[in-house]
Amino acid sequence: MKKTIIYPPGFAAPRGAYSPGILLDFGTGRTLYATGQLAVDPSGQVVAPDDASAQTDYVFKLIGQILAAADLGFDDVVRTQTYLTNMADFPKFTAVRDRYLGGALAASTLLEVKGLARPGCCVEVEITAAR
């Protein structure tokens, strides 16, 4: 098994000891584990504070960059884990998510949380993808 750190070009430097993604290559298949993504731009600013639709779109664009850097795509996503600070934002989140995942039935977990790592962030998504 080969382990590769996935760090897309132009990504903001992590604020801790983690990477945007880890790709495990087993020779017969690959699995990507992507860190939870927040709507934070490369300069460290929160994108569209408290706007679940805009933040979800931004988060999935980041996830798309991680997938592309691992030579994978949204069709390869097999699991999502989502954290929302307000469950009332779920319909907004799903409308945007479905544009990216195309109705694919990935295994998923959704949790409502009191807060996220950055004030103004209302959605965080992590994924697992495999091929």
Question: What's the gist of this structure?
Answer:
The chain has 131 residues and is an alpha+beta fold. Helix content is 23%, strand content 31%.
Helix content: 10-25%
CATH class: Alpha Beta
What is the mean pLDDT? 94
At the fourth CATH level, what is the homologous superfamily? Answer: RutC-like
Shape estimate: globular
Strand line-up across the major sheet: 1-2-3-6-4-5
Number of domains: 1
CATH topology: 60s Ribosomal Protein L30, Chain: A
Taken in chain order, the helices and strands follow as EEEHEHEE
Structural class: alpha+beta
User: Which second-level CATH architecture applies?
Assistant: 2-Layer Sandwich
Topology:
Elements: E1 2-6, E2 21-25, E3 30-37, H1 52-69, E4 77-84, H2 90-101, E5 107-112, E6 123-130
Parallel strand pairs: 4-5
Antiparallel strand pairs: 1-2, 2-3, 3-6, 4-6
Helix pairs in contact: 1-2
Plain-language structure description:
The chain is an alpha+beta fold and 131 residues long. The protein has a single domain (2-130), classed as RutC-like (60s Ribosomal Protein L30, Chain: A, 2-Layer Sandwich). It has 2 helices and 6 strands; from the N terminus they run E-E-E-H-E-H-E-E. The protein has a 6-stranded mixed beta sheet, covered by helices on one side. The radius of gyration is 14 Å and the shape is globular. The mean pLDDT is 94.
Essential attributes:
131 residues, alpha+beta, 60s Ribosomal Protein L30, Chain: A, six-stranded mixed sheet, 23% helix, globular
